[in-house]
Specification:
The protein has helices at 2-13, 35-52, 196-208, 210-237, 242-245, and strands at 65-76, 79-91, 97-105, 110-133, 136-164, 167-176, 183-188. By secondary structure, the chain is of the alpha+beta class. Strands 1, 2, 3, 4, 5, 6 and 7 form a seven-stranded antiparallel β-sheet that branches. The protein has one domain: TULIP domain (Bactericidal permeability-increasing protein, domain 1, Super Roll), CATH 3.15.10. It is built from five helices and seven strands. The protein binds 2-acetamido-2-deoxy-beta-D-glucopyranose (NAG) (2 copies).
Length: 250
Amino acid sequence: MIRIALTVTVLLHCSCGLVDIEKYLKVCRRNSVDVNDCLVDAIQDGLSVMAAGIPDINVPAVDPYHQKDLRIEYKNNQILAKFTAKDIYVEGLKSSTVHDVRFRADDDQFHLEVDLTTPRVHVRGKYRGEGRYNSLKILAYGMFNTNMTDLTYTWKIDGVPEKNQNGTFIRITDFYMRPDVGQMMSYLSNDNPESREITELGNRFTNNNWRILYREFLPFAQDNWNKIGIKVSNKIFLQVPYDQLFPVDL
Ligand SMILES: *[C@@H]1O[C@H](CO)[C@@H](O)[C@H](O)[C@H]1NC(C)=O
Ligand SMILES: *[C@@H]1O[C@H](CO)[C@@H](O)[C@H](O)[C@H]1NC(C)=O
């Protein structure tokens, strides 16, 4: 009897070489009435942990977040622009505040909304830009940096349960956010003397019209965030069984 009980206990608790996530992150019970409040704290703490990453389980650092490159092509009437950024660093996520969480999950769907504010985000990197405006051609390259303040946004994260030989996991399939930004200031240095005057003008134009430009740029940014959000969250979700990440009370 005792042997059987022990075996059952071991089987129920066996993580069988899988990750013991509670070492790193606070875990919330999925059918508890205060799962949303629990997740506010869990995600708030999780941001500090995720900032440095969890090297033991190959979760990358998210603050600063390093992105190798980003390519953008933009066409609008007479304007054609190609922009390639390299070695991009995004800083500031760890000073965010989690305000509210709405969690909805059952056996065949997973949906999580997280309301956040971030006081300041700093983005920097190298760039190369080519622009054409009617017959005018511009080539510029150098460094860029942007400061955004008072960001307000909601993460909308969707996933589906997926079974494999290790158990049931949630695969995150969609990550959406559309930050409202209080203020934005950008600066592009230009190592190409031939177009330096134009980039100086461009800097002033960008800072005076950033709200319109931000709106134009959002679809590209959102596409990029969607990919990053899915990649980073699946580093956790696909390594930790659903029942360990969001246990159910029996
Ligand atoms: C199952 O877990 C083992 C050990 O952690 C791992 O090597 C393997 O890739 C996992 N299988 C899948 C399908 O994720
Ligand atoms: C952004 O903030 C940093 C640090 O305060 C500063 O060095 C940089 O010049 C700022 N960039 C812009 C474009 O204002």
